[in-house]
Amino acid sequence: MSAEAAKPLYNNKNPFQATHPVNNKLTGAESEKDTRHHEISLAGSGLVYEAGDALALKATNDPELVELTIQALGCTGDETVKVKDVEKPLREALFRDYVLHFVEKKFIAKLAERGVAKMVELSKPENAAALTAYTNTRHETRDYVDILREFPEVKLTPQEFCDTLRALAIRLYSISSSQKAHPESVHLTVATVRWNAHGRVRRGVASTFLAERWGGEMTAGIFAQTQKHFRLPDDPNTPVIMVGPGTGVAPFRSYLEERQAIGARGKNWLLFGEQRASQDFFYREQFERWQKDGLLSRMDLAFSRDQAEKIYVQTRMKEAGAEIWKWLADGAYFYVCGDKNKMAADVHNELIAIAQTHGGKSPEEAKAFIEEGLMKTEKRYRRDVY
Protein backbone atom coordinates (compact mmCIF):
# COMPACT_ATOMS: atom_id res chain seq x y z
CA MET A 1 0.00 0.00 0.00
CA SER A 2 1.35 3.45 -0.91
CA ALA A 3 2.03 6.07 1.76
CA GLU A 4 -0.68 8.23 0.16
CA ALA A 5 -3.26 5.45 0.38
CA ALA A 6 -2.26 4.73 3.98
CA LYS A 7 -3.15 8.22 5.18
CA PRO A 8 -6.30 8.34 7.33
CA LEU A 9 -9.27 9.71 5.40
CA TYR A 10 -10.96 12.42 7.43
CA ASN A 11 -14.00 14.19 6.06
CA ASN A 12 -17.39 15.57 7.04
CA LYS A 13 -18.73 12.10 7.83
CA ASN A 14 -15.54 10.98 9.56
CA PRO A 15 -13.81 13.99 11.18
CA PHE A 16 -10.87 13.64 13.53
CA GLN A 17 -11.90 14.36 17.12
CA ALA A 18 -9.30 16.91 18.20
CA THR A 19 -8.55 18.88 21.33
CA HIS A 20 -7.79 22.61 21.45
CA PRO A 21 -4.93 23.27 23.90
CA VAL A 22 -3.95 26.83 22.89
CA ASN A 23 -6.30 29.83 22.68
CA ASN A 24 -4.34 33.11 22.85
CA LYS A 25 -5.65 36.60 22.24
CA LEU A 26 -3.67 38.45 19.56
CA THR A 27 -5.36 41.83 19.97
CA GLY A 28 -4.54 44.28 22.75
CA ALA A 29 -6.76 45.28 25.65
CA GLU A 30 -7.82 48.48 23.88
CA SER A 31 -8.55 46.89 20.51
CA GLU A 32 -12.07 47.03 19.13
CA LYS A 33 -11.64 43.41 18.04
CA ASP A 34 -11.03 40.05 19.67
CA THR A 35 -8.78 38.14 17.27
CA ARG A 36 -7.20 34.93 18.53
CA HIS A 37 -4.48 32.42 17.75
CA HIS A 38 -5.77 28.87 18.12
CA GLU A 39 -3.69 25.69 18.16
CA ILE A 40 -5.49 22.40 17.63
CA SER A 41 -3.76 19.13 18.46
CA LEU A 42 -3.27 16.53 15.72
CA ALA A 43 -1.47 14.08 18.02
CA GLY A 44 -2.03 10.52 16.88
CA SER A 45 -4.28 11.54 14.00
CA GLY A 46 -2.10 11.09 10.94
CA LEU A 47 -3.95 14.11 9.52
CA VAL A 48 -1.90 15.99 6.92
CA TYR A 49 -2.26 19.44 5.39
CA GLU A 50 -0.29 21.79 3.16
CA ALA A 51 0.37 25.52 3.44
CA GLY A 52 -2.58 27.24 1.77
CA ASP A 53 -5.15 24.62 2.82
CA ALA A 54 -8.15 25.28 5.05
CA LEU A 55 -9.34 23.52 8.18
CA ALA A 56 -12.95 22.39 8.45
CA LEU A 57 -14.43 22.63 11.93
CA LYS A 58 -17.66 21.08 13.17
CA ALA A 59 -18.76 23.57 15.83
CA THR A 60 -21.84 23.41 18.03
CA ASN A 61 -24.31 26.14 18.89
CA ASP A 62 -24.15 28.41 21.92
CA PRO A 63 -25.98 26.55 24.74
CA GLU A 64 -27.50 29.85 25.89
CA LEU A 65 -29.09 30.39 22.46
CA VAL A 66 -30.32 26.77 22.47
CA GLU A 67 -32.08 27.31 25.81
CA LEU A 68 -33.59 30.63 24.71
CA THR A 69 -34.93 28.95 21.57
CA ILE A 70 -36.44 26.09 23.58
CA GLN A 71 -38.10 28.58 25.94
CA ALA A 72 -39.46 30.65 23.04
CA LEU A 73 -41.01 27.47 21.60
CA GLY A 74 -42.65 26.75 24.95
CA CYS A 75 -40.86 23.39 25.16
CA THR A 76 -38.76 21.62 27.79
CA GLY A 77 -35.99 20.47 25.43
CA ASP A 78 -36.59 16.82 26.29
CA GLU A 79 -39.10 16.30 23.49
CA THR A 80 -38.05 13.83 20.79
CA VAL A 81 -37.46 14.94 17.21
CA LYS A 82 -36.21 13.13 14.13
CA VAL A 83 -33.03 14.38 12.45
CA LYS A 84 -32.38 12.47 9.21
CA ASP A 85 -34.44 9.56 10.60
CA VAL A 86 -32.46 9.52 13.86
CA GLU A 87 -34.48 10.23 17.00
CA LYS A 88 -32.91 12.50 19.60
CA PRO A 89 -33.93 15.06 22.23
CA LEU A 90 -34.84 18.52 20.90
CA ARG A 91 -32.07 20.10 23.00
CA GLU A 92 -29.37 17.92 21.41
CA ALA A 93 -30.74 18.52 17.91
CA LEU A 94 -30.69 22.29 18.37
CA PHE A 95 -27.21 22.12 19.89
CA ARG A 96 -25.57 20.00 17.18
CA ASP A 97 -27.64 19.87 14.02
CA TYR A 98 -29.31 23.14 13.06
CA VAL A 99 -28.60 26.80 12.30
CA LEU A 100 -30.20 28.96 14.98
CA HIS A 101 -28.62 32.40 14.55
CA PHE A 102 -30.62 33.48 11.52
CA VAL A 103 -34.07 32.68 10.17
CA GLU A 104 -34.88 30.48 7.18
CA LYS A 105 -37.58 31.39 4.64
CA LYS A 106 -39.25 28.05 5.37
CA PHE A 107 -39.90 29.27 8.90
CA ILE A 108 -41.40 32.53 7.61
CA ALA A 109 -43.58 30.50 5.24
CA LYS A 110 -44.73 28.29 8.12
CA LEU A 111 -45.82 31.34 10.11
CA ALA A 112 -47.59 32.74 7.05
CA GLU A 113 -49.35 29.39 6.70
CA ARG A 114 -50.51 29.82 10.30
CA GLY A 115 -52.06 33.16 9.42
CA VAL A 116 -49.53 35.60 10.87
CA ALA A 117 -50.45 38.72 8.88
CA LYS A 118 -46.96 40.24 8.87
CA MET A 119 -45.45 37.03 7.51
CA VAL A 120 -48.18 36.68 4.89
CA GLU A 121 -47.26 40.14 3.64
CA LEU A 122 -43.47 39.59 3.78
CA SER A 123 -43.83 36.28 1.92
CA LYS A 124 -45.21 37.97 -1.21
CA PRO A 125 -42.68 37.95 -4.08
CA GLU A 126 -42.81 41.73 -4.44
CA ASN A 127 -41.75 42.10 -0.80
CA ALA A 128 -38.51 40.09 -1.07
CA ALA A 129 -36.36 43.13 -0.19
CA ALA A 130 -38.54 43.91 2.83
CA LEU A 131 -38.24 40.30 4.01
CA THR A 132 -34.45 40.46 3.76
CA ALA A 133 -34.45 43.77 5.64
CA TYR A 134 -36.61 42.25 8.38
CA THR A 135 -34.67 39.01 8.82
CA ASN A 136 -31.12 39.63 7.74
CA THR A 137 -30.05 43.28 7.90
CA ARG A 138 -26.33 43.40 8.73
CA HIS A 139 -25.82 43.48 12.53
CA GLU A 140 -29.61 43.51 13.02
CA THR A 141 -30.24 39.88 12.05
CA ARG A 142 -33.29 38.36 13.68
CA ASP A 143 -33.14 34.81 14.97
CA TYR A 144 -35.92 32.40 15.93
CA VAL A 145 -36.04 33.71 19.49
CA ASP A 146 -36.79 37.23 18.24
CA ILE A 147 -39.64 36.14 15.99
CA LEU A 148 -41.17 33.56 18.33
CA ARG A 149 -41.24 36.22 21.05
CA GLU A 150 -42.79 38.72 18.62
CA PHE A 151 -45.60 36.28 17.80
CA PRO A 152 -46.17 34.25 21.00
CA GLU A 153 -49.59 33.16 19.76
CA VAL A 154 -47.93 30.85 17.21
CA LYS A 155 -47.46 27.34 18.55
CA LEU A 156 -45.25 24.91 16.64
CA THR A 157 -44.48 21.35 17.65
CA PRO A 158 -40.76 20.63 18.06
CA GLN A 159 -40.78 18.58 14.84
CA GLU A 160 -42.65 21.26 12.88
CA PHE A 161 -40.05 23.78 14.01
CA CYS A 162 -37.05 21.58 13.21
CA ASP A 163 -38.44 20.82 9.76
CA THR A 164 -38.07 24.52 8.86
CA LEU A 165 -34.40 24.72 9.89
CA ARG A 166 -31.18 24.55 7.88
CA ALA A 167 -28.51 22.00 8.77
CA LEU A 168 -25.57 23.39 10.73
CA ALA A 169 -22.65 23.31 8.29
CA ILE A 170 -18.92 23.01 8.83
CA ARG A 171 -16.87 26.20 9.03
CA LEU A 172 -13.73 26.60 6.93
CA TYR A 173 -10.75 28.58 8.21
CA SER A 174 -7.47 29.37 6.47
CA ILE A 175 -4.68 27.43 8.17
CA SER A 176 -1.99 29.72 9.62
CA SER A 177 0.76 27.15 10.22
CA SER A 178 3.06 24.87 8.28
CA GLN A 179 2.98 21.23 9.29
CA LYS A 180 6.71 21.09 8.63
CA ALA A 181 7.13 23.57 11.49
CA HIS A 182 4.37 22.09 13.69
CA PRO A 183 4.08 18.35 12.91
CA GLU A 184 1.37 17.61 15.48
CA SER A 185 -0.79 20.73 15.45
CA VAL A 186 -2.70 23.04 13.16
CA HIS A 187 -3.05 26.78 13.82
CA LEU A 188 -5.91 29.17 13.06
CA THR A 189 -6.17 32.97 13.24
CA VAL A 190 -9.80 33.84 13.92
CA ALA A 191 -11.68 37.07 14.68
CA THR A 192 -14.29 36.37 17.35
CA VAL A 193 -17.66 37.66 16.11
CA ARG A 194 -19.99 39.29 18.64
CA TRP A 195 -22.60 41.99 18.17
CA ASN A 196 -25.76 43.38 19.72
CA ALA A 197 -29.16 43.19 18.05
CA HIS A 198 -32.70 43.64 19.32
CA GLY A 199 -31.56 43.92 22.93
CA ARG A 200 -29.42 40.78 23.04
CA VAL A 201 -25.77 39.86 22.53
CA ARG A 202 -25.25 37.73 19.41
CA ARG A 203 -22.31 35.40 18.85
CA GLY A 204 -20.77 33.92 15.73
CA VAL A 205 -21.24 30.16 15.93
CA ALA A 206 -17.73 28.84 15.24
CA SER A 207 -15.65 31.87 16.25
CA THR A 208 -17.13 31.94 19.77
CA PHE A 209 -17.03 28.13 19.92
CA LEU A 210 -13.28 28.48 19.46
CA ALA A 211 -12.90 31.49 21.75
CA GLU A 212 -15.25 30.55 24.57
CA ARG A 213 -16.53 26.99 24.53
CA TRP A 214 -13.88 24.54 23.24
CA GLY A 215 -11.24 23.78 25.84
CA GLY A 216 -9.83 21.22 28.24
CA GLU A 217 -10.36 17.61 27.22
CA MET A 218 -13.39 18.43 25.07
CA THR A 219 -13.06 17.29 21.45
CA ALA A 220 -14.52 18.64 18.22
CA GLY A 221 -14.51 17.26 14.69
CA ILE A 222 -11.99 18.62 12.18
CA PHE A 223 -10.56 17.70 8.79
CA ALA A 224 -8.29 19.36 6.24
CA GLN A 225 -9.81 20.94 3.14
CA THR A 226 -7.39 20.84 0.21
CA GLN A 227 -7.03 24.17 -1.62
CA LYS A 228 -4.77 23.49 -4.58
CA HIS A 229 -5.69 26.86 -6.10
CA PHE A 230 -3.99 28.62 -3.18
CA ARG A 231 -0.73 26.73 -2.84
CA LEU A 232 2.77 28.18 -2.98
CA PRO A 233 4.63 28.04 -6.33
CA ASP A 234 6.18 24.66 -7.11
CA ASP A 235 9.56 26.35 -7.56
CA PRO A 236 10.84 27.54 -4.13
CA ASN A 237 12.97 30.17 -5.88
CA THR A 238 9.87 32.02 -7.11
CA PRO A 239 9.18 35.36 -5.40
CA VAL A 240 5.77 35.86 -3.78
CA ILE A 241 3.76 38.96 -2.88
CA MET A 242 1.15 38.35 -0.15
CA VAL A 243 -1.70 40.77 0.61
CA GLY A 244 -3.48 39.78 3.81
CA PRO A 245 -5.11 42.41 6.01
CA GLY A 246 -6.72 41.30 9.26
CA THR A 247 -7.19 37.56 9.60
CA GLY A 248 -6.37 37.35 5.88
CA VAL A 249 -2.75 37.14 7.04
CA ALA A 250 -3.35 33.58 8.26
CA PRO A 251 -2.23 31.59 5.17
CA PHE A 252 0.77 33.88 4.71
CA ARG A 253 2.08 32.98 8.16
CA SER A 254 1.83 29.36 6.97
CA TYR A 255 3.63 30.23 3.70
CA LEU A 256 6.50 31.88 5.56
CA GLU A 257 6.85 29.00 8.01
CA GLU A 258 6.83 26.60 5.06
CA ARG A 259 9.43 28.52 3.08
CA GLN A 260 11.63 28.81 6.16
CA ALA A 261 11.32 25.06 6.83
CA ILE A 262 12.30 24.04 3.29
CA GLY A 263 15.00 26.70 2.88
CA ALA A 264 13.24 28.35 -0.07
CA ARG A 265 15.28 31.13 -1.67
CA GLY A 266 12.42 33.00 -3.32
CA LYS A 267 11.82 36.53 -2.03
CA ASN A 268 8.78 37.14 0.18
CA TRP A 269 6.83 40.42 0.42
CA LEU A 270 3.96 40.84 2.91
CA LEU A 271 1.38 43.63 2.91
CA PHE A 272 -0.59 43.54 6.17
CA GLY A 273 -3.15 45.94 7.56
CA GLU A 274 -5.43 46.36 10.54
CA GLN A 275 -6.77 49.20 12.69
CA ARG A 276 -3.95 50.10 15.12
CA ALA A 277 -0.33 48.97 15.29
CA SER A 278 -0.29 49.01 19.10
CA GLN A 279 -3.37 46.79 19.39
CA ASP A 280 -3.85 44.84 16.18
CA PHE A 281 -0.43 43.85 14.78
CA PHE A 282 -0.89 40.08 14.79
CA TYR A 283 2.29 37.98 15.12
CA ARG A 284 4.39 41.14 15.26
CA GLU A 285 7.45 39.57 16.89
CA GLN A 286 7.48 36.66 14.45
CA PHE A 287 7.12 38.85 11.36
CA GLU A 288 9.73 41.34 12.54
CA ARG A 289 12.15 38.50 13.32
CA TRP A 290 11.60 37.06 9.84
CA GLN A 291 12.24 40.49 8.36
CA LYS A 292 15.46 40.85 10.37
CA ASP A 293 16.59 37.36 9.36
CA GLY A 294 15.91 38.05 5.68
CA LEU A 295 13.11 35.50 5.20
CA LEU A 296 10.66 38.37 4.81
CA SER A 297 12.28 40.52 2.14
CA ARG A 298 9.80 43.35 2.54
CA MET A 299 6.84 44.15 4.80
CA ASP A 300 4.47 47.05 4.14
CA LEU A 301 2.02 47.92 6.91
CA ALA A 302 -1.29 49.78 6.75
CA PHE A 303 -2.90 50.64 10.08
CA SER A 304 -6.03 52.52 9.12
CA ARG A 305 -6.67 54.37 12.38
CA ASP A 306 -3.17 55.41 13.39
CA GLN A 307 -3.48 58.70 11.47
CA ALA A 308 -6.21 61.08 10.35
CA GLU A 309 -6.28 59.71 6.81
CA LYS A 310 -7.36 56.08 6.45
CA ILE A 311 -4.57 53.92 5.04
CA TYR A 312 -5.26 50.46 3.65
CA VAL A 313 -3.22 47.73 1.94
CA GLN A 314 -4.26 49.05 -1.47
CA THR A 315 -2.82 52.44 -0.45
CA ARG A 316 0.53 50.75 0.17
CA MET A 317 0.23 48.91 -3.15
CA LYS A 318 -0.21 52.20 -4.97
CA GLU A 319 2.82 53.70 -3.22
CA ALA A 320 4.93 50.65 -4.12
CA GLY A 321 3.45 50.20 -7.59
CA ALA A 322 6.73 50.37 -9.48
CA GLU A 323 8.32 47.72 -7.28
CA ILE A 324 5.25 45.45 -7.45
CA TRP A 325 5.36 45.67 -11.23
CA LYS A 326 9.06 44.79 -11.20
CA TRP A 327 8.40 41.73 -9.03
CA LEU A 328 5.59 40.61 -11.34
CA ALA A 329 7.85 41.07 -14.35
CA ASP A 330 10.41 38.87 -12.58
CA GLY A 331 7.84 36.06 -12.26
CA ALA A 332 6.40 36.73 -8.80
CA TYR A 333 3.14 35.14 -7.70
CA PHE A 334 0.56 37.55 -6.25
CA TYR A 335 -1.71 36.31 -3.43
CA VAL A 336 -4.72 37.91 -1.75
CA CYS A 337 -6.64 36.59 1.27
CA GLY A 338 -9.54 38.15 3.17
CA ASP A 339 -12.75 40.07 2.65
CA LYS A 340 -14.07 39.67 -0.90
CA ASN A 341 -16.70 42.40 -0.77
CA LYS A 342 -14.46 45.43 -0.32
CA MET A 343 -10.77 44.68 0.23
CA ALA A 344 -10.23 42.09 -2.49
CA ALA A 345 -12.06 44.25 -5.05
CA ASP A 346 -9.97 47.30 -4.12
CA VAL A 347 -6.74 45.29 -4.32
CA HIS A 348 -7.80 43.89 -7.71
CA ASN A 349 -8.52 47.36 -9.08
CA GLU A 350 -5.21 48.68 -7.77
CA LEU A 351 -3.37 45.80 -9.43
CA ILE A 352 -4.97 46.76 -12.75
CA ALA A 353 -4.00 50.41 -12.12
CA ILE A 354 -0.39 49.34 -11.49
CA ALA A 355 -0.35 47.50 -14.84
CA GLN A 356 -1.47 50.74 -16.47
CA THR A 357 0.79 53.16 -14.60
CA HIS A 358 3.95 51.08 -14.45
CA GLY A 359 3.37 48.59 -17.26
CA GLY A 360 2.42 51.19 -19.83
CA LYS A 361 -0.80 49.38 -20.71
CA SER A 362 -4.13 50.84 -21.75
CA PRO A 363 -7.07 50.29 -19.37
CA GLU A 364 -8.30 47.42 -21.52
CA GLU A 365 -4.84 45.86 -21.85
CA ALA A 366 -4.19 46.17 -18.10
CA LYS A 367 -7.50 44.49 -17.25
CA ALA A 368 -6.83 41.67 -19.72
CA PHE A 369 -3.26 41.24 -18.45
CA ILE A 370 -4.37 40.86 -14.82
CA GLU A 371 -7.62 38.92 -15.28
CA GLU A 372 -6.80 36.76 -18.27
CA GLY A 373 -3.01 36.55 -18.31
CA LEU A 374 -1.87 36.65 -14.70
CA MET A 375 -4.92 35.02 -13.12
CA LYS A 376 -6.21 32.47 -15.65
CA THR A 377 -3.39 31.64 -18.06
CA GLU A 378 -0.29 31.89 -15.87
CA LYS A 379 -2.14 31.26 -12.57
CA ARG A 380 0.24 33.60 -10.79
CA TYR A 381 -2.57 35.69 -9.26
CA ARG A 382 -4.27 33.57 -6.59
CA ARG A 383 -7.10 34.52 -4.26
CA ASP A 384 -8.71 33.04 -1.17
CA VAL A 385 -11.52 35.47 -0.41
CA TYR A 386 -14.64 35.12 1.69
Distance between the termini: 38 Å
Query: What is the CATH third-level topology name of the largest domain?
Result: Rossmann fold
Whole-angstrom Rg = 24 Å
| Strand fraction | 15-25%
- How many helices? The count is 16
Low-confidence stretches: none
> Based on DSSP secondary structure assignment, what is the total number of beta strands?
16
Give the CA-based shape. Answer: globular
Tally of separate domains: 3
CATH homologous group name of the largest domain: Nucleotide-binding domain of ferredoxin-NADP reductase (FNR) module
CATH C-level label of the largest domain:
Alpha Beta
Q: Give the integer mean of the pLDDT values.
A: 96
In short:
The chain has 386 residues and is an alpha/beta fold.
Task: Give a description of the structure.
By secondary structure, this protein is α/β, with parallel strands linked by helices. It folds into three domains: 3-59 and 170-225, Translation factors (Elongation Factor Tu (Ef-tu), domain 3, Beta Barrel), CATH 2.40.30; 63-162, NADPH-cytochrome p450 Reductase, Chain A, domain 3 (Up-down Bundle); 228-385, Rossmann fold. 36% of the residues lie in helices and 21% in strands. The chain has helices at residues 3-6, 63-73, 90-96, 105-113, 117-122, 128-136, 144-150, 158-162, 205-213, 250-262, 277-280, 284-293, 313-319, 321-329, 343-357, 363-377; strands at residues 16-18, 22-25, 35-41, 54-58, 80-83, 86-89, 171-174, 185-191, 194-197, 200-203, 220-225, 240-243, 268-274, 298-303, 333-338, 381-385. The strands form five sheets. A five-stranded parallel beta sheet has the order 14-13-12-15-16, sandwiched between helices. β12, α10 (250-262) and β13 form a beta-alpha-beta unit. The longest helix is centred in the last third of the chain and has 15 residues, at 343-357. The chain is globular and about 65 Å long. The relative contact order is 0.13.
